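Molecular record:
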Amino acid sequence: MQSSSSQTISRTSPVLEIVTPGHFNKSILDLKPKIAVFDCDGTLWHGDTGSDFMIWTLETGLVSRETADWIDDRYRLYRKGDLSEVAICGEMVQMYAGLTEIELRHAARTFFQQKFEQRIFPDMLSLAQQLHASGTELWAVSSTNSWVVEEGAGRFGIPVERVLAARVRIANQIITSDLLDVPSGDGKVESLRRAGITHPDVVFGNSVHDAAMLGIAAHAVAIHPTPELLVKARAMGWTIHMPAQ
């Protein structure tokens, strides 16, 4: 059974401090951030929408058998370490080439409602709502496809124009295979830079792929960090927060 409390390790606290969501939220709100940037998978909700959406679209028959076989082979290579994170994230968007954007938006909406609505971290939802109400500009940055990220980020009050995610060119409402962006690792910093954001006030992330983005923040917060990011966060003195699930 999950505790209703959250766990936070702050820059000034060498030991684990058990705090309520309200205490953590206040510590962030007290920073009076003008810009807050969030990773999505593992940070705003539990799980990986990118791979889960890929599997769900294969199971529901949204893509052809040929495409399904191709992406399955590519994903196996990725799991073996023979394909990079950036490469597979790009291909997991390119696999929908030829479909209409309307189809993908409808699929993303159905998928998120069925599979991830209940996985949203209540603490992070509350924090985003309070930041939004205080006038903070909220951004989402993710290597997952833009359709799913925009659907999920909307729950947190993040508009589509402030979502930086893996995306391809759309021509006459048809999805193409022309990649426009795959924000991962240093690519997240580059995507933010192109959007005019070079020094965000606070950044939230959960994996090593967020480390570069966390590194440019005035205040960095590692949310449920993976082991690799945990080591990095401790070394850098970043806040570590474990919201209730």
